[in-house]
Write a structure and sequence with these properties.
The protein is an alpha+beta fold and 247 residues long. 21% of the residues lie in helices and 31% in strands. It contains five helices and ten strands; from the N terminus they run βαββαβββαβββααβ. Strands 1, 2, 3, 4, 5, 6, 7, 8, 9 and 10 form a ten-stranded mixed beta sheet that branches. Helix 3 packs antiparallel against helix 4. It is globular. The two termini are 31 Å apart.
Amino acid sequence: MEKKRIRITVAYDGTNYHGWQIQDNGNTIEAELNKCLSELLGEEIRVIGASRTDSRVHALGNVAVFDTQNPMPASKISYALNQRLPEDIRIQRSEEVSPNWHPRHCESRKTYEYRIYRAEFPMPVKRLYSYFTYHTLNVERMREAAAYLEGKHDFKSFCQTGAQVENTVRIIYALWVEEQGQDLVIRVCGNGFLYNMVRIIVGTLLEVGQGKREPESMPDILAAGDRAAAGATAPAHGLTLMKYEFL
């Protein structure tokens, strides 16, 4: 029987996982998918993920593909797989795609969201999904700073030191800073992101909001091409991969 390629849309709570990619030091989303798919389909399955999210980062719509010879209809795999996966991982959709379709080899837009909870004291039910701060943040200053980062730039200053990447130029299509009650939501849509790029952008915008940097400093940070020029890396648990759009 010929192999077919299946695309799955994966949602997960990253709290208890060491990120997407298989690691030696702990359980990962990729490892759980491989194990449960192999058991379900009766053959060794190795998924290819679109985004290798970090430890404790969440996702509503990460994407992965795998090849299988099992005759189970593609649309039914999501139902069967969800019966085997731990409850903090759920397949939102499964579908057949062309045999050569690869999530990292086609143009796409990726949207991340970072949530910040602003209050005098932390809120326990938000602790796993948002970053708490008691500092007063000037949201308008943060919006001014964010506008400088939209467009096509070399984001080397916003890439974690030591990352193995040839090209640090990326496009940010939109970068919003939105108030939702006591929550402050930073949403960024781009054609791709460097290692820790979104979290470093958030950390830098937080410093702007606290008055530690000026909004007008963003072009100089970009021009520096140096990780030390940007702000701190915001904690992982406030970050969620919201969706992929394949163009």
